[in-house]
Specification:
Blueprint (H helix, E strand, L loop, with lengths): L8 E5 L4 H12 L3 E6 L2 H11 L6 E5 L5 H15 L4 E4 L14 H28 L3 E6 L3 H4 L5 H21 L4 E8 L5 H11 L3 H10 L12 H12 L10 E4 L16
Parallel strand pairs: 1-2, 1-4, 2-3, 4-5, 5-6, 6-7
Length: 269
């Protein structure tokens, strides 16, 4: 076992699937203990068992971190279980499609809660625990949409852009406490969300859709979508001592999509 995170404790929102689950798996492989948080109980149980069948290094919590009380309880449960908290990864997120003219107050509240407030609430309660131990790391999972924008994704793009501003402000506020805060912006990533959408669109099985996406060209310089584990490795870098001088920064993990003239509507995390 590698040991880049030996003895560390991480809390990963959205940790039951996609980029979050890959991050939890990699962190545990690197020696960390991890709490995975997701509002879907079945997904939490499945991911927890897959990552650590013994249950010694993984704590699964069913919670919606867009609710302040849920975020607080997730942090408290992590500290109670593992004795400390060193790393927060905010990978929870949802999507809505359509222009701003079709958005409603209800849809704005929902996506802001999941994509922005969830990160803010988790950080609110994680930061004091980190500071008490001399410091820590926060990695917010944003999206290339935060920088480039996409047609028909006004609400999603707005929340992901706000997450980058939150990242920079928290980095400024908490550097003196030994807390580094950075963001990663994935481009198109072959997550279960995109696999299910492809399967539904084509009327094929999940496995068939996954194979199609792996072969399908993506609008970036590398010509392919990312595997969730590739994004997890970027998060690992930002969470580890290897990036000890890095804070308030955004790591683009998109295969160079920002240098391609025309990017498809479906791109993004």
């Amino acid at each position: 076992m590698a040991d880049r995170l030996a003895g560390k404790v991480a809390l990963i929102t959205g940790g039951a699937g996609g980029i979050g689950a890959a991050t939890a798996e990699l962190f545990v492989r690197e020696g960390a203990s991890a709490t995975i948080v997701d509002p879907v109980a079945e997904a939490v149980g499945r991911a927890s068992t897959n990552i650590d069948p013994t249950g010694e290094q993984v704590l699964g919590i069913v919670a919606d971190v867009g609710q302040e009380a849920d975020a607080e309880q997730a942090v408290l449960a992590t500290v109670q279980q593992f004795g400390r908290l060193d790393i927060l990864v905010t990978a929870a997120g949802v999507r809505l499609y359509g222009p701003v003219t079709e958005a409603t107050a209800e849809s704005w509240h929902w996506i802001l809660g999941a994509n922005l407030l969830g990160a803010a609430f988790a950080a609110k309660f994680a930061i004091p625990e980190m500071a008490a131990n001399g410091g820590g790391v926060i990695v917010n999972v944003s999206s290339t949409n935060a920088i480039n924008g996409r047609a028909g994704m006004a609400q999603y793009d707005a929340t992901k852009a706000a997450l980058l501003a939150l990242t920079r402000s928290m980095a400024c506020d908490h550097a003196s406490q030994g807390i580094r805060v950075n963001a990663v912006c994935p481009g198109f990533t072959i997550t279960p969300f995109h696999i299910r959408r492809k399967a539904e669109a084509l009327g094929v099985s999940y496995d068939e859709a996954q194979a199609i996406l792996r072969e399908e060209p993506a609008a970036n310089l590398l010509g392919r979508g990312a595997d969730p584990m590739e994004i997890a490795r970027c998060i690992l870098f930002l969470a580890s001592d290897e990036s000890g001088i890095v804070t308030g920064e955004t790591l683009m993990a998109s295969g160079g999509s920002g240098m391609v003239g025309t990017i498809s509507f479906s791109s993004g995390t």
